[in-house]
Amino acid sequence: MDDDSRYSRNTALFGEDGQRKIAATTVAIVGLGGLGSHVAQQLAYLGVIRYTLVDDDAITESSLNRVIGAVPQDVPSMMPKVRAAERLIKSLQPEAAVTVLEARVTRSSEDGAATLIRNADVVFGCLDRESPRLFLTDLCSASEIAYFDLATDTGGENEDWYGGHVVYCDGRRCLSCLDLLDQRLIRIEQMTDVELENERRLYGLKGDLLGGTGPAVVSVNGVVASLAVTEFMAHVTGIRRPAPQLVYRADIPRVTLSKDVPRSGCPYCSRWGHRQPAA
Ligand SMILES: [Zn+2]
């Protein structure tokens, strides 16, 4: 007789042992918007039980085009995105242990967020700002935690492309040594309002430079999130080696394995002493 248990179609791919490993993995998702909500939903289907969710934002009218699980009633009630994600996870996985933190992860988050994230086995960064990416790169490398960075990207004024990427940071590469962190944006994100006004006056600033107003479409986010969760599945179950860096070009359209070579001597990756230098 066919196995009709909940995870029978999962174990057909990666086995009972793989399923047990997924259930035993604690995951932190930082950013529960257009990317993170997809990740949360897929992890719940995959069979992850323990979650830490971090985001300081609430559902707004403009979230309703892409945040999975958000409903129109969440707008007047100013539902925190972490609570909408918790509701989504528990609807699929009632026994899930979900820790939520309504907080923004910043460079100076030596607080509850850092402690909670350090307890995870795998971290997903689903962010639209650069400084929390740097923070997660730092935190995850210091604690040797696998970090998946997800991003949707669009070209500048003269580059008409759109898509996204997934980077698997495991001590062999990270956002820093792949030159994927925009140092000017990190500086700008940490400015006070007065400093920001000066920057705007002296150098000019694109309106959407600080995130939140660029294009964001559910299907493009869904591809990027699906790529990341598939690499997570590979990482946890050992079914194959996770891809180091995947680039999705939705305009061509094509998914490619990036051939970018990380810079040597990375201060973050070198903390993973025993894992470096791996092939
Ligand atoms: Zn690195």
Structural description of this entry:
The protein has helices at 8-23, 36-46, 81-92, 112-118, 130-143, 183-189, 193-203, 218-237, and strands spanning 26-30, 50-54, 97-101, 122-126, 146-154, 162-169, 245-249, 254-257. With 279 residues, the chain is α/β, with parallel strands linked by helices. The chain has a single domain (9-182, 215-254), classed as Rossmann fold (3-Layer(aba) Sandwich), CATH 3.40.50. Strand 4, helix 5 (130-143) and strand 5 (146-154) form a beta-alpha-beta unit. Helix 2 packs parallel to helix 3 and helix 2 (36-46) crosses helix 8. It is globular, with a radius of gyration of 19 Å. It starts with 7 loop residues before the first helix and ends in a 22-residue tail after the last strand. The chain binds zinc ion (ZN).
